[in-house]
Amino acid sequence: ADTLRSVYGRVKPPVVIIPNGVDLKRFHPPTVEERRNARAMFRLNDEARVVLFVGHEFERKGLSYGIDALVHAPSVLLLVVGGNASSIDAAKSRASRLGVADRVLFVGPRFDLPLFFAAADIFVLASAYEANALVILEALASGLPVVATRAGYAPEIVEEGVTGYLVDRDPAQIGAAFEAAAAIEPGGWSAACRTSAERRGWRHIAEEYIRLLERLAPNRQK
User: Fold this and answer.
1) Helix, strand or coil for residue 26?
2) Each residue's pLDDT tens digit, 30-61
């Protein structure tokens, strides 16, 4: 709403914001077996703390900051989903220059996202700009704490120290958030993260649309 007004000036009609919804059945905290099987696919042991990044536009979504943050977060690994051949090669070169290549795994574009959420412990998205960032909701619905910049509606759904951390595009700050999130035992964030996403389930979002339509509909005799 603020962006709309800043671009177009005063907007006479009322502005109603209805966010994206999330599929709460598809995205859910993994069972013990789901987590074990997902981590086994990537040869992750129980002690490994995994940060997940999902996004195609590496530059806008801030993958470089996540890679740089590994210098300040020695206890975590980074699992990267998305990108293309050229962007993945550039990111691999960056990780090599920083000496963290052995802690970054690139899997390329994938559509079986619940598998990766099940394998991970933390989600990161250091975007420069987002309209909504549905993937943040998917991470929360999967029980993962989120480390995100104040883009899109992340500030509305990420509660500091409860469902994750809001950060600047600052590798040291992001790395500190990784370490803070990783210090909590696996599953320790799950209940609060899931609860925050349940308010954005598609049933609730559909009801918001229905209420809006009822307000817009002309008066009718009953």
Assistant:
1) coil
2) 999 999 999 999 999 888 999 999 999 999 99
Q: What are phi and psi of 166, to 5 degrees?
A: -95, 130
Pairwise CA distance, residues 24 & 209, whole Å: 18
CA dihedral 170, 171, 175, 181 (to 10 degrees): 40
Summarised one tens digit per residue, pLDDT across range 137-180 is 999 999 999 999 999 889 989 999 999 999 999 999 999 999 99
pTM value? 0.91
User: 148 to each of 88, 99, 105, 202, 205, how far by Cα in Å?
Assistant: 21, 24, 20, 23, 23
Residue 16's identity, in one-letter code, is V
CA distance 70 to 78: 8
Residues 6+ apart with CB under 8 A from 51: 66, 73, 76, 77, 78, 79, 120, 121, 122, 123, 124, 147, 178
Q: Diameter of the chain by CA atoms?
A: 71
